[in-house]
Amino acid sequence: MQYDQRISKTDLARSTHQVIREAQRGYTVLVENHGQPEVVIVDIIDFQLQRAAMHYLGFPKEFEKDIEISEATVRSLPSDQDRFNLVIGHYLAVHISIGRSAELLGMSPPELQVRLMRSGVPLRMGPESQEELDNEMKVIERSLRRK
Fold it and tell me: Residue 80: helix, strand or coil by DSSP?
């Protein structure tokens, strides 16, 4: 992960609000103490995506089955992190597309793509089968109807 901004703890104390706004805009802020890195501030969704990718890498057997994941299933999970773990795990296991993953996480496919790239999570671009292409088209059609 690259650091878009480096600041001292003193500067963080003086401009906390601005630093948080920068992180929410997608910038990664490295906080240093006497020139030594101590903490990184990132947007919460980027953090959850990173944790979900690590969860998948740590427990790939949880995602061996190609299952249909519904909005109701995702909503019923007890925490946001559980939601990210399920969706991103199945995305990385090549069970659902980036479009479907974005839909389940309540964001647009381009936003999810940018966040995954920024977070260092591998992207799968383009459908790998006719079925995946058909599913992507359904997601796009639903997205257009909502607007």
Answer: helix
Which has the closest alpha carbon to 31: 12, 59, 56, 4? 12
d(CA 124, CA 9): 38
Contact partners, residue 118, CB within 8 Å, separation at least 6: 26, 28, 46
The pLDDT tens digits of the residues spanning 72-103 come to 999 999 999 999 999 999 999 988 989 899 99
| Whether the model pTM is above 0.85 | no
Phi, psi of 60 (to 5 degrees): -65, -25
Domain ranges in the chain? 5-41, 44-146
Query: What does the alpha-carbon distance between residue 103 and residue 115 come to, in Å, rounded to a whole number?
Result: 14
- Inter-residue contact 92 to 112 (CB < 8 Å): no
Q: Which fold has domain 5-41?
A: YefM-like fold (3.40.1620)
Classify residue 79 by its DSSP letter.
Answer: S
